C-alpha cells in the first residue's frame, strides 16, 4: 500500500491549501470505451488547475465527472470514488443538484440562454428559490462585475444575450456561473472559440477569480496553461501521466511523454 | 478590474447561505421531480388508450354483429339491404365501391403525383420549387368537405355535359376529385425520396452522356423506388379512408356493379349514412356499422404498416 | 476498329435530347395540373358564394328561407369546438412529446408508443367518429354536444401535435439544457424554464396546423349525429351544436333540390377557407419570426 506522497500520480506539494477534490482509482466507461483509467488526483482550493493532453484523452470526461454532468450520457458507468469537501459524490444518494450548485461550469462554446442578459444571470438564483427583486438586482451587478463585463452591459441588461460578441457571451456565462457563488468553477476549453483579445481577457479574469474560487480548466493551449495555472495534469489515453506544479511540468517534467507533448512532438 | 468592489459588498447578501437555507426548506421540489415523470407517462399513455379504445369498440360491437350475421355471409355477400324487411348484410358492394373509387383516385394521383415529384426534384430550379411546393401543399390543406362540394356541384355536371349517360351521383367524379386531393401527398413524399438519392449517383449517369430524363428513369427512380412505393401505399390508404367526397358525390346506391357512371357506396359513406340515420342502438343495422368500420380499420392499418415497412427498407439502402 | 459510331450516336442524341425537353414540359404541366384544379375550385366557390356573404349571413340564425339564413350558430359551434380542442391537444400532445423526448428510456415502451402514435395518424377520421359516438356520446353519456365533438376531434388531431412538439423539442440545442443542469437545476426546472420556452414557436405552429385540420373535419361529426337544422345558438360545451363543415355538408346535400343552397354552401366554404388562411398565415409568421438563432 503506497501512501499519497509516494504515488507518482498524486501530487501533494508544499501548498497549504485545503484539498477540495480527491479522486481515488476513478474509472469511467462509455459503454465499452474505457475513457478514464485509475485517476488519482487531489485538487486544491483557490488554485488554478490546468488539464492538458491530446484530443480524446479524456479531459472533458474528467471534468464533467467532477460535477456528474457526464451522467447525461446514458451508457456511462464508473468505479472508484471522488470526494468533494469530504463527501463522496459518486454515491447514488448524493444529490447532483446540490453538487452542481457548489460547482459551476463554463463550456467550450459560449452557451447563454436565449433570454435577456438580466434573466441569464438570475436563472441560477431563481431556480434555487431566490425571488426578491432587490437581492436579484444586487446579484446581477455583482456577478457581472465579477466577470468584468458590467461596464459593457450595464445599460442593456434587458437586451437578448445573443446580441453580445462571442467573448462577451463567454464572460456572461462566467457571470451566470458566479451568480450562485459556487466554490469551484470547471472550465472546458473556455477560450477555444474566442479570438486572442477575448482570450486574454478571460485569462486575466481567471487570475482574478482564483482569489475566491478553485478553478479547474481544460485547455489545448500550452501557453495558456503555463500562464494561468498553478498545477497542471497531463492526461494521455484516459490516464494521468503526470501531475505537478505547472512550473515543474513545463521545465523539468519527469515523464518523457509529457516532455514530448509539451514540446509539440505529438497531440 | 472591478472584482474587489464585488467582494466588499459580499457581506450584504450571502447567496450561498440563502441558497442553502432555501434548500433545507424545499422537499417540495424533490417530490415534484418524482411525480412529473409519472404524470407524463400517464398523459403519454392516452395515445395507447385511444388505440385500445378504437380496437375494443370495433371488436366488441362487431362481435355482436357476427353473432347475428355469420362472418362468411358478411364477407362474401353481394347484396346489401340493411333497411329492407328481410335485411341482408353483404360487404361486397361497399368493398367494391371503396376499391373502385380508390383505383380511380390512384389513376389520377399516381401518375400526376410522380410526374410532379420528378419535375420538382430533377428539373425545377430552387426558386421554382420553393414557389410550387407550398402552393401544391395548399391542395392538401383544403378540407375534404370542400372537395365534396366541388365534385358534386362542378365536376359531376361537367362530366354529365360531355357524357350524358353518367348519373347525377356516380363514383367517377368523387374518384377523380379524391385523386386531386391525394396528388400533393404522393408528390411530396416521392420528391423527398428522390431528393435523398445522392447526387453522385446522378453525376455518374450524366457523365456518361445520359440525358436528365434517362438519368431520372434509370437511376433516380429505381434508387428512390421504395420511397415512391410507400407514398403510393399511403395514398391508397388515404383514399380508402376518405369519407366526405364519396358520401356527397356518389350517393348511397348499394348495387354491386362495376359501372363507374353509376352511384356506388363506399364503406365510409355507409357509416355516415347509417349512423346519421338514427340507427337504434342494439339493432343489427347499428352493429353493422362496427363490422364495416372494423374492415375499414384493418385495411388502412395494413396499408400503413406496409408503407412503413417499405420505407424503412428504403432508408437502409444508403 | 471503333466500338462506337460517333455519327450514329450524334443522330440519336438529338432525338434523346428532344424527348427530354418534351417530357420536361409534360412534367411541368402535371405539376401545374393540381394548381389549376385548385384555381378552378376557388374561382367556382368565390363566384357562387361571395354575393351571399353579408352581415346578416355572418350573424344570423339558420332559416328555412335560403336568403334569410345565417351561420352564426355554426361559427359559434366551431369556436366552442376549438375551445376544447386547443387546450386538450396542447396538454396531451406536449405532455406526450416531453415524455417521449426527455423522460422515456430508449427501449420497448418508448418505441411501442412511437409506433402507436404513427399508426393513429393513419386511422381514417370516420373511425374516430365511431369511437367518439361509442365512448363520449353513449358510454359517458354526454350526448351529441360540443364536449363530445371537441374530444373526438382532439383525439383525431393529437398525433399532429405530438409529432410537431417532439420535433420542436428535439431541435432545442443540447448545450442550453447542459448550461441549466450545470447550474444545479433539476430536470423539470430545465424542461419548464429552458427547453419548453425554446420549443414554443414550433409547438404553437404545430398546434395551429392541428387546429386547422380539426376545423375542417366533417366525417367524425356526421357520425356523432349533429342535427341538420338547429336554431338556438350553443351557449356552452354541454349544448348541442352545428359547425361550419356540417353546415356546408347539409347545404350541399340540399343543393340537389334547391340551387340556392349551393350558394349558401359556397358562401360558408369561403368563410371556412378564410379562417384556415388566417390560421396558416399566423403559423408562417410565427415560424419566420422565431427562426432559431442559437
Ligand atoms: N458520449 C460519448 N459516448 C461514447 N464515447 C465518448 C463520449 N464522449 C466521449 N467519448 C469517448 O471518450 C474519450 C474521451 O473523450 P473526451 O471528450 O473526454 O476527450 P477530450 O480529451 O475532452 O478531447 P478534446 O480535446 O477533443 O475535447 C474519447 O475516446 C471519446 O471518443
Ligand atoms: Mg473535450
UniProtKB/TrEMBL annotation, chain A:
One of its GO terms (molecular function) is ATP binding. InterPro entries: AAA+_ATPase (IPR003593), ABC_transporter-like_ATP-bd (IPR003439), ABC_transporter-like_CS (IPR017871), P-loop_NTPase (IPR027417), PstB-like (IPR005670). One of its GO terms (biological process) is phosphate ion transmembrane transport. SUPFAM superfamilies: P-loop containing nucleoside triphosphate hydrolases. PROSITE patterns: ABC_TRANSPORTER_1, ABC_TRANSPORTER_2. CDD domains: ABC_PstB_phosphate_transporter. One of its GO terms (cellular component) is membrane. Residues 21-262 form the ABC transporter domain. It holds the Pfam family ABC_tran. This is Phosphate ABC transporter ATP-binding protein. The lineage of its organism: Bacteria, Bacillati, Bacillota, Bacilli, Bacillales.
UniProtKB/TrEMBL annotation, chain B:
The keyword Thylakoid does not apply. Its main location: membrane. One of its GO terms (cellular component) is plasma membrane. It is found in: Cell membrane; Membrane. Residues 95-307 form the ABC transmembrane type-1 domain. GO terms for biological process: phosphate ion transport. It is a multi-pass membrane protein. GO terms for molecular function: phosphate transmembrane transporter activity. The keyword Acyltransferase does not apply. Keywords: Cell membrane, Membrane, Phosphate transport, Transmembrane, Transmembrane helix, Transport. The chain crosses the membrane at residues 35-59, 99-123, 135-159, 171-189, 219-240, 285-307. InterPro entries: MetI-like, MetI-like_sf, Phosphate_PstC. Pfam families: BPD_transp_1. Belongs to the binding-protein-dependent transport system permease family. CysTW subfamily. Part of the binding-protein-dependent transport system for phosphate; probably responsible for the translocation of the substrate across the membrane. This is Phosphate transport system permease protein. It comes from Virgibacillus profundi. The lineage of its organism: Bacteria, Bacillati, Bacillota, Bacilli, Bacillales.
Automatic annotation (TrEMBL), chain C:
The keyword Transferase does not apply. One of its GO terms (molecular function) is phosphate transmembrane transporter activity. CDD domains: TM_PBP2. Coiled coil: none annotated. GO terms for biological process: phosphate ion transmembrane transport. It is found in: Cell membrane. Pfam families: BPD_transp_1. Residues 75-283 form the ABC transmembrane type-1 domain. It is a multi-pass membrane protein. Keywords: Cell membrane, Membrane, Transmembrane, Transmembrane helix, Transport. SUPFAM superfamilies: MetI-like. PROSITE patterns: ABC_TM1 (PS50928). The chain crosses the membrane at residues 26-51, 71-99, 120-139, 145-165, 194-215, 261-286. Its main location: membrane. The keyword DNA damage does not apply. InterPro entries: MetI-like (IPR000515), MetI-like_sf (IPR035906), Phosphate_PstA (IPR005672). One of its GO terms (cellular component) is plasma membrane. PANTHER family: PHOSPHATE TRANSPORT SYSTEM PERMEASE PROTEIN PSTA, PHOSPHATE TRANSPORT SYSTEM PERMEASE PROTEIN PSTA-RELATED. This is Phosphate transport system permease protein PstA. It comes from Virgibacillus profundi. The gene is pstA.
Amino acid at each position: 500500500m503506497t501512501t499519497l506522497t509516494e504515488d507518482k500520480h498524486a501530487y501533494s506539494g508544499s501548498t497549504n491549501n485545503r484539498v477540495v477534490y480527491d479522486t481515488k482509482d476513478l474509472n469511467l466507461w462509455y459503454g465499452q470505451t474505457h475513457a478514464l483509467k485509475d485517476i488519482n488526483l487531489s485538487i486544491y482550493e483557490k488554485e488554478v488547475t490546468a488539464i492538458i493532453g491530446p484530443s480524446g484523452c479524456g479531459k472533458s470526461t474528467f471534468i464533467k465527472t467532477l460535477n456528474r454532468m457526464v451522467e447525461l450520457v446514458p451508457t456511462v458507468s464508473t468505479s472508484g470514488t471522488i470526494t468533494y469537501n469530504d463527501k463522496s459524490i459518486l454515491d447514488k444518494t448524493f444529490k447532483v443538484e446540490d453538487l452542481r450548485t457548489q460547482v459551476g461550469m463554463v463550456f467550450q462554446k459560449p452557451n447563454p440562454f436565449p433570454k435577456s442578459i438580466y434573466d441569464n444571470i438570475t436563472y441560477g438564483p431563481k431556480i434555487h428559490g431566490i425571488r426578491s427583486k432587490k437581492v436579484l438586482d444586487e446579484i446581477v451587478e455583482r456577478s457581472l462585475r465579477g466577470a468584468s463585463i458590467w461596464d459593457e452591459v450595464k445599460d442593456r441588461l434587458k437586451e437578448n444575450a445573443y446580441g453580445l460578441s462571442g467573448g462577451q457571451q463567454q464572460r456572461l456565462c462566467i457571470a451566470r456561473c458566479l451568480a450562485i457563488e459556487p466554490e469551484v468553477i470547471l472550465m472546458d476549453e473556455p477560450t477555444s472559440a474566442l479570438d486572442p483579445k477575448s482570450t486574454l481577457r478571460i485569462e486575466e479574469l481567471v487570475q482574478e477569480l482564483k482569489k475566491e474560487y478553485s478553478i479547474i480548466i481544460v485547455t489545448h493551449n500550452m501557453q495558456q496553461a503555463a500562464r494561468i495555472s498553478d498545477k497542471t495534469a497531463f492526461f494521455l489515453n484516459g490516464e494521468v501521466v503526470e501531475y505537478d506544479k505547472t512550473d515543474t511540468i513545463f521545465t523539468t517534467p519527469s515523464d518523457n511523454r509529457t516532455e514530448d507533448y509539451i514540446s509539440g512532438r505529438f497531440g | 478590474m472591478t472584482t474587489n468592489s464585488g467582494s466588499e459588498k459580499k457581506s450584504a447578501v450571502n447567496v450561498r447561505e440563502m441558497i442553502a437555507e432555501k434548500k433545507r426548506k424545499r422537499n417540495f421540489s424533490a417530490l415534484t421531480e418524482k411525480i412529473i415523470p409519472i404524470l407524463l407517462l400517464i398523459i403519454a399513455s392516452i395515445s395507447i388508450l385511444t388505440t385500445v379504445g378504437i380496437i375494443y369498440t370495433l371488436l366488441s360491437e362487431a362481435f355482436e354483429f357476427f353473432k347475428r350475421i355469420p362472418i362468411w355471409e358478411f364477407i362474401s355477400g353481394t347484396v346489401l339491404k340493411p333497411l329492407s324487411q328481410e335485411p341482408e348484410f353483404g360487404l361486397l358492394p361497399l368493398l367494391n365501391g371503396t376499391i373502385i373509387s380508390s383505383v380511380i383516385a390512384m389513376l389520377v394521383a399516381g401518375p400526376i403525383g410522380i410526374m410532379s415529384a420528378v419535375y420538382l426534384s430533377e428539373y425545377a430550379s430552387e426558386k421554382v420549387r420553393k414557389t410550387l411546393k407550398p402552393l401544391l401543399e395548399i391542395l392538401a390543406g383544403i378540407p375534404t368537405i370542400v372537395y365534396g362540394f366541388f365534385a358534386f356541384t362542378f365536376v359531376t355536371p361537367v362530366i354529365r355535359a360531355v357524357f350524358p349517360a353518367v348519373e347525377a351521383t356516380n363514383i367517377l367524379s368523387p374518384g377523380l376529385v379524391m385523386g386531386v386531393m391525394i396528388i400533393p401527398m404522393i408528390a411530396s413524399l416521392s420528391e423527398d425520396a428522390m431528393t435523398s438519392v445522392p447526387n453522385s449517383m446522378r453525376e455518374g449517369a450524366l457523365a456518361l452522356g445520359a440525358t436528365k430524363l434517362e438519368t431520372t428513369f434509370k437511376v433516380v427512380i429505381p434508387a428512390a423506388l421504395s420511397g415512391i412505393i410507400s407514398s403510393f401505399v399511403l395514398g391508397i390508404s388515404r383514399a380508402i379512408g376518405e369519407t366526405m367526397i364519396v358520401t356527397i358525390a356518389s350517393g348511397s346506391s348499394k348495387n354491386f356493379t362495376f359501372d363507374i357512371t353509376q352511384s356506388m357506396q363506399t364503406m365510409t359513406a355507409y357509416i355516415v349514412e347509417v349512423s346519421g340515420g338514427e340507427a337504434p342502438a342494439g339493432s343489427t343495422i347499428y352493429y353493422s356499422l362496427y363490422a364495416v368500420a372494423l374492415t375499414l380499420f384493418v385495411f388502412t392499418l395494413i396499408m400503413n404498416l406496409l408503407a412503413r415497412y417499405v420505407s424503412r427498407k428504403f432508408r437502409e439502402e444508403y | 476498329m471503333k466500338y462506337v459510331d460517333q455519327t450514329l450516336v450524334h443522330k440519336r442524341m438529338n432525338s434523346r435530347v428532344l424527348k427530354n425537353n418534351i417530357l420536361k414540359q409534360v412534367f411541368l404541366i402535371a405539376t401545374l395540373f393540381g394548381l389549376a384544379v385548385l384555381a378552378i375550385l376557388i374561382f367556382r366557390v368565390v363566384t357562387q358564394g361571395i354575393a351571399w356573404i353579408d352581415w346578416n349571413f355572418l350573424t344570423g340564425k339558420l332559416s328555412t328561407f335560403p336568403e334569410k339564413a345565417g351561420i352564426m350558430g355554426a361559427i359559434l359551434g366551431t369556436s366552442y369546438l376549438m375551445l376544447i380542442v386547443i387546450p386538450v391537444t396542447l396538454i396531451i400532445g406536449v405532455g406526450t412529446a416531453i415524455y417521449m423526448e426527455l423522460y422515456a428510456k430508449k427501449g420497448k415502451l418508448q418505441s411501442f408508443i412511437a409506433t402507436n402514435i404513427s399508426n393513429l395518424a393513419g386511422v381514417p377520421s370516420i373511425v374516430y367518429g365511431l369511437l367518439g359516438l361509442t365512448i363520449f356520446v353513449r358510454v359517458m353519456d354526454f350526448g351529441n354536444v360540443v364536449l363530445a365533438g371537441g374530444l373526438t376531434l382532439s383525439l383525431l388531431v393529437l398525433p399532429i401535435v405530438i409529432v410537431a412538439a417532439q420535433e420542436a423539442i428535439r431541435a432545442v440545442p443540447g448545450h442550453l439544457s447542459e448550461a441549466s443542469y450545470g447550474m444545479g437545476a433539476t430536470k423539470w426546472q430545465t424542461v419548464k424554464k429552458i427547453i419548453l420556452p425554446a420549443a414554443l414557436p414550433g409547438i404553437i405552429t404545430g398546434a395551429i396546423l392541428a387546429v386547422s385540420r380539426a376545423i375542417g373535419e366533417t366525417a367524425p361529426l356526421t357520425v356523432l349525429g349533429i342535427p341538420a337544422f338547429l336554431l338556438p345558438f350553443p351557449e356552452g360545451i354541454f349544448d348541442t351544436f352545428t359547425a361550419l363543415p356540417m353546415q356546408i355538408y347539409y347545404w350541399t346535400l340540399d343543393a340537389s333540390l334547391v340551387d340556392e343552397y349551393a350558394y349558401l354552401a359556397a358562401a360558408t366554404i369561403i368563410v371556412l377557407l378564410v379562417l384556415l388562411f388566417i390560421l396558416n398565415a399566423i403559423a408562417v409568421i410565427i415560424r419566420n419570426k422565431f427562426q432559431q438563432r442559437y
